[in-house]
Every structure is written in structure tokens, then in C-alpha cells.
Amino acid sequence: MDTPPSPFEAGPTGTSPVLVGALAPLSRPGWAEAGRHLLAGLELAVEEANDAGGIGGRPLGLVVRDTAADPHRAAAAVDELARLGVAALAGEYHSVVARAAATRADALGLPFLCSSAVLDALTEQPTDRVARLAPAQSHGWRTYADFLLAAGHSRIAVAAEPSVYWTSGTRVLRDRLAPRGGTLVHLDAHALDPAALCDRLAESGATAVLLLVGHPEPAVPIVKAVRRDRRLAEILIGAPAGQPEFADWSASLGDDGTGIPFLRYMPERFSPLGVRVEAALRARLAGTPSFVAFEGYDTIAVLAEALRSHGTDRARTAASWPQLAVEGTRGRIRFSRTPGIGVWQWTWAPVQVVDRDPGDPGRFRTLHVGRGSADAPRSRPGGGGGPI
């Protein structure tokens, strides 16, 4: 199901709008809660851009399409949005879906600012038309590997499903851990049920197990099984892809979902802009906004500046990435070329490893801060830090 068109798409009577296409997973099997947060950030920033005069006096309109985590559906949506005359494309959460959208947008000459997807190979070939706000997987997951080593974990199991994204993440972890004496034990979460996985985990000698799997299935049953297995009482459960970020994780797992470190792309402290936007997003979502909501807001903030300063011609917008410097909710956003990354990249958004506090599941504890959000990585033994 697609989101209803914005009022501007439906037929304005005044000045014609500048349209931006937005992609988000808003229905299953996509992670719909992530899509809802992403859309909330996009919509808030559009409203604020219009309150500030729009794009050269023209209103900014958002045309939303639900990808439902389907790469083919996303590519078809890009074709449709291009025909509708959008000036640029924004959004998407799932990496494999974003890659399909980016490839199609590049072929059509449509500038695409990807909000949340982290897969390094966002396009098969280098392109000037695509830019990204989220840290590349190789950057964020190296930070997670550093956290594991600093916390004393050198033999680590990965419970993984078959996927380009999970395979890529496993490779990043292995490459980071191996030179420092760390090893990975692979457990096939697709072939093993939770009980069999626990048996293999108990035999592995690992002190941590990472969930490289989908949510809620099979992540929730695996967590419940590990928590209830006395043999695994001392093992750390980790989720680098960020499954515990969202409220439905706590709703599904309760106390079992706490103390599970994950990656979060947030600063240690917000600027005044971040404080203001956090309050507005909290009201809009009727709850704590995730980092994905801030990625959505920052996406429109960047695109609005590009359209104001360089015009609405697609080629000119795509050429503007390296010239932009925009104050976002999580820092000043500039794009550059990064080795091994074929798109324009914000190098880097802030990266943290956090978990939900067992004493207060609504509170996040900062355990480790990565390069790009601080001068150097640092760990906080025991899960110190304050609420974010």
C-alpha cells in the first residue's frame, strides 16, 4: 500500500511545487517501524522548509512510495517517481532495496540522497548522482568490532541468515578482528532452530553471539532461547544492525531485550537544532525518535539546501553534493569521496555502540564511541554514559 499523495501532488492551485520522491518500508515484510520513523523525519523537514519559504518561493512536496523491503518494487517506484517529475529522490532503510533504487536512479539521471542504508556497494559502479548520509557498513561495523575487543571478546559467534547484507557485515567483522587475534564462529540461523543454535553456541567456546538476522523472526525467538539456556548465562548477545533501537523490540522481548549492544548513529550531545528537532519528532511519533527519524530529517535539510542554492535541474542537483555544507541534527554535513565507496558519502555521521539499560529499558547506555563522532574510539566499561 502506498502512502496517500501529499497535497502538492494532489493538485495545488498556486505555484507549482518542487517534488521530492521518498522511498520507505511502510508495510511487511519491510521493517515498517523503521519506515514510519524515516517518514516522520522527512515530513517534518518538508514542513519546516515550507515554513521558511520553500524552494525559491515554491512549496516543497513529498511523494511517498512504500517499498515493503522489495528491491523490484523499489526500482518500479523510482521509474514512476521519475515520470512524475520529482527533482530528487530521498529515503530508504533496507540496504539491498536502496541498492536497487540507487542503481535505477543513476540510470535515469535522478539524484538520490540515501538516508539510512549502509551497504558499502550501494551502486555497482561509481556515480556522481547518488549520495548517502548513513555511515558505510565497513565503517560502522569496524567500530562494533573495536567495541567487542575492548570489552574482552575475542571468540565471537555470528548467528547469520543468508543475505548480501549479512555476508558483507560478517566479512567486515572478520577482517577487523583477525589481525587482533579475534575469531568468528559461523552459526547458520536459517538451518538451525533456536534450540539447536543454542546447542552449537554452547559448544563453540564463544563469549558473544551476534544476531545477523531479521526482526522479529528469527531474532526474537533466538534471544528468548539464549536467555533461558543456563549454559549461556554469561554470553553477550549483540545486534550490530540496530534491531533493539525500536520500540517493537522492547514490546516483543521486555527485559530479555536489554543489555544487547547495537550500532546507533547519534551524537553524544545534540546541538540546539538537534534538541528542537528531537522534541518535534517525539511529539509526532508519540514516543522516542530513533536515529532513523533524524536521518530522514537531515535528508530533506540537505536536499532543500541543494535545491535552493543550485536550482531544481536534476543534473545541477547531482553536481552539488561536494559543494554543500549543511547543519544537520547530528553534525555538519559535507560529502566527499571515500576509498571503496562509489557514491558521495558524509564522512562520517556519528557512530555509537549502545544498549538498553536493564534497569530502565527506555534508557540507552553509551558503551563505545567511534571515530568520526569523536577524536578517537573509546569504550566505557560497564556501560556508563547517560540517556540519549
TrEMBL record:
Keyword Signal: yes
Annotated keywords: Signal
Domain named Leucine-binding protein: residues: 18-340
Keyword Signal attached: yes
Leader peptide range in chain numbering: none
InterPro entries: BCAA_transport, Leu-bd, Peripla_BP_I
Region (Disordered) residue spans: 357-388
SUPFAM superfamilies given in the database record: Periplasmic binding protein-like I
Family named by the database record: Belongs to the leucine-binding protein family.
Protein name, UniProt field: Amino acid ABC transporter substrate-binding protein
